[in-house]
Amino acid sequence: MTTPDRIPAGRAMRAASARVSRTILGGCVATMMIVLDLIVYSQLIFSGPLAESRTAGVAAMLSAYVLGGLVFAVLKRDVVVSLSFFGAAAIVQAAIAARVAEQLHAAGVTDPDAVGQIVLLACGAATLLTGLVFVALGTLRASLVMQLLPYPILTGFLAGVGLLLLRSGVQIGAHIDDAVASLLGLFDPATPSLRDPGTLGRIALTLGIGFCAFYLPRRVPHWSTFPAIVIASFALVHLGVSMQGLDTAAAQAAGWLIDPLPPGPLLRAPAIASLPGFDPALLLPVLPKIATEILVAVIIQILYVVSVELDLRREFGIDRLFVASGFTNVLGSLFGSPVMGFDRTSTLYLHNIGGGQWLGRWLTLAITAALLLFGASSLGLLPRPLAGGALIAIALGHLFNLSRAHRTLLPWEVAVAACVCAATALFGATMGFLTGILMAMLIFAVQYAQIPTIHRAISGAERRSSIIRERAGNSSF
């Protein structure tokens, strides 16, 4: 008599256990992607002269992410979403950080700690302005305003950003200062160091990982494809390092692993605590870059939200997401974090694997909080080719969209997109975006000039007057 009652109870327990397991798996995979983004973008922004400030940058990003996750949990309670940092905006913020660092070195400020704090304040100012724009757009229900930008301009600009990300990905993955100069130096016999087998191996591996991370998820559209690429790349590099007899420190020195992070907690005072020593004049030369970063962040946020809504066939409320992302960036600006917001990849993982359960979101926040409180020295085991390959995969996605533009755009529109792409890649994101705006105005002027002034001329033969007038000769006047 008790057997039929126990069978449904057993099935319910197994079903609940399966849901929890899938949610935990989804949270772990999403966390893997988020932590990878965090390390990649910290390597991108805090590079070259700012490399010694990378620990402060990672601490700022982790603090901002934890607080931002709590903001999303409060303001966006109707649906489980995840947030992360924007790669296309990070490339602009890297330019802002490098420009501010140049000004400081020109002024004689060379202390790494002082330079790092001022750079964090400058990045925080850019993030603060971006957050305020996000809040304004969401509050005024004008979040989709950037859709007014012509599609050829948008496609060309993002493709140009993709080329910049491609260059940065090779530099990070191969541990070289300038990817273009290094590649050209391969054919120069006067620079034999650039033909080092280790450097060539890292370049090849970085490009291979980036191509696989871009191509295989599209070829095999399963949630496990991208994590499998990450795990396989991690294992491959560490296997090669161990076969060479290198320990962790030697592998980091040789450029196979990212630079080590110090042991212990990464909690730091917010960068805004150093505000009294900040000179606002440092922001004047980078104001065009800050404006570009704001526009790029708005575009990326719209694309992410709309694409996830189409993939999951549900509405997420773009205006409310903009408000939540805006307040997230306002809090993140206190630490000097780069721009972040609603993330496409990790949100899709949470929903496709774990069914969008709340446990997945809290698991992600718990892991990032643990890295902040107990230390993130284990992240120093991340291979450089994997970090660079992640950027290359993003870059290839933008370039792929441009390559498909000829299917939907007219030939002259494809030419416009190619011009904007070239301007962005050669002269930077700011000049590329300004070129796009000018070309958009030109497109509008040309198309508007083709509209006839008089749409229709009506004669008396079509519409006759109801008033009978006397002939001019019969008038008594």
Average pLDDT metric: 83
Distance between the termini: 116 Å
- Biggest sheet, in brief? 2 strands, antiparallel
- Helix tally? 16
Shape: globular
Rg estimate, integer Å: 27 Å
Tell how many strands the DSSP assignment holds.
2
Low-confidence stretches: none
Helix content: 55-70%
In spatial order, strands of the major sheet run 1-2
The number of domains: 1
Strand content: under 5%
Structural class: mainly alpha
Topology as H/E string?
HHEHHHHHHHHHEHHHHH
Q: Which tags fit this structure?
A:
477 residues; mainly alpha; globular; two-stranded antiparallel sheet; 16 helices
The gist of it:
This protein is mainly α and 477 residues long. The protein has one domain (22-449). It has helices at residues 3-45, 54-75, 87-106, 112-139, 151-174, 179-185, 197-219, 225-243, 248-254, 287-312, 318-333, 344-354, 358-374, 384-403, 411-427, 429-449; strands spanning 83-85, 340-342.
Could you describe the 3D structure shown?
With 477 residues, this protein is mainly α. It has one domain. Helices cover 67% and strands 1% of the residues. The chain has 16 helices and two strands. The protein has helices spanning 3-45, 54-75, 87-106, 112-139, 151-174, 179-185, 197-219, 225-243, 248-254, 287-312, 318-333, 344-354, 358-374, 384-403, 411-427, 429-449, and strands at 83-85, 340-342. It has a two-stranded antiparallel sheet with strand order 1-2. The radius of gyration is 27 Å and the shape is globular. The termini are far apart. The model has no long low-confidence stretch (mean pLDDT 83).
